């Protein structure tokens, strides 16, 4: 067990270093750009579109960064913005559905999934969720509090102060990242080396069946739920090959996983934003279950109609 913990710690530190190299410069650059005309030009360009989903123009920055890079980079950008609790929740829900599109869509394609379908489903879910929260929830008007990071709108008068404030904000962001990622990576290492992922997949078999998939899809689903589309790629691709998962079940599994994957990491990562993360997890799980059941129902109806036509 000591060896497992040591390897998990090493993976956690390596992951923190890898992600920190993304978060630090992005947080620093966005912090500095806030004091230049560049950010205002971007905000003015996209503000009319962002209003439709209840967000200010500068909220486009974390959305673009998160979808092109990852959640950690997006959170680094959010930490530089003055937003309300409602605006942060809308961003968090959108980013939880749609992030890291380039890498995760490519991973999905290696198991036979369509990249276009993956991207369309994720972006659609993000936009629909934002519209629903914007129109149905009237609360959350108070300013968001970002954990260790102060988001005060203090006026900085010289470039030295601006640079120092940006470095401080970036360092605090990485510290919060480490406090989440290192224990998480240790836990994932334990799950991998003790083969508990296989136990979890057996527990999931009834849910897999309820969602309209065969039981041999449960390992693919479990790997995606626990490790995510990127970290769980190896396990998922191998499970698809070894377990003989059908094209239909694979499609349904990925419909579920693009809505809800890496349930531990992608939930805990939003803790520094100071929003309640349980509603975020419930929204993702509920959406994944309902959407998968709907697609399964429609798929069954279409196949049944084809069989009837074939017998005529």
UniProtKB/TrEMBL annotation:
Keyword tags: Membrane, Transmembrane, Transmembrane helix
Pfam families with a match to the protein in the record: Gate
Protein source organism: Parageobacillus thermantarcticus
Superkingdom, taxonomy of origin: Bacteria
Transmembrane segments: 22-47, 59-81, 88-107, 113-133, 170-191, 219-240, 252-275, 281-299
Start and end residues of each Nucleoside transporter/FeoB GTPase Gate domain: 17-99, 175-264
Signal peptide residue numbers: none
Protein name stated in the entry: Nucleoside recognition
């Amino acid at each position: 067990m000591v060896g497992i913990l040591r390897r998990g710690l090493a993976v956690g530190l390596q992951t923190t270093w890898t992600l920190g190299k993304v978060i630090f410069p992005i947080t620093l650059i966005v912090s500095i750009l806030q004091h230049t005309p560049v950010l205002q030009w971007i905000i003015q360009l996209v503000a009319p579109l962002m209003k439709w989903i209840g967000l200010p123009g500068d909220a486009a920055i974390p959305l673009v960064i998160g979808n092109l890079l990852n959640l950690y980079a997006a959170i680094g950008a959010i930490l530089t913005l003055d937003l309300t609790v409602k605006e942060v929740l809308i961003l968090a829900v959108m980013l939880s559905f749609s992030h890291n599109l380039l890498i995760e869509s490519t991973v999905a394609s290696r198991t036979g999934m369509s990249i276009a379908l993956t991207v369309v489903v994720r972006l659609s879910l993000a936009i629909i969720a934002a519209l629903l929260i914007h129109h149905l929830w009237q609360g959350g008007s108070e300013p968001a509090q970002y954990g260790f990071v102060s988001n005060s709108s203090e006026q900085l008068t010289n470039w030295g102060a601006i640079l120092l404030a940006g470095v401080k904000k970036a360092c605090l962001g990485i510290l919060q990242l480490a406090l989440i990622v290192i224990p998480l990576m240790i836990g994932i290492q334990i799950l991998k080396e003790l083969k508990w992922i296989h136990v979890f997949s057996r527990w999931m078999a009834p849910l897999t069946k309820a969602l309209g998939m065969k039981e041999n899809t449960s390992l693919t689903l479990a790997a995606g739920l626990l490790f995510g589309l990127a970290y769980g790629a190896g396990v998922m691709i191998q499970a698809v090959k070894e377990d003989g998962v059908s094209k239909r079940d694979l499609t349904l599994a990925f419909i579920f996983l693009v809505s809800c994957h890496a349930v531990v990491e992608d939930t805990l990562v939003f803790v520094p934003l100071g929003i309640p993360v349980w509603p975020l997890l419930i929204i993702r799980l509920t959406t994944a279950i309902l959407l998968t059941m709907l697609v399964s129902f429609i798929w069954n109806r279409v196949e049944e109609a084809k069989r009837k036509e074939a017998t005529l």
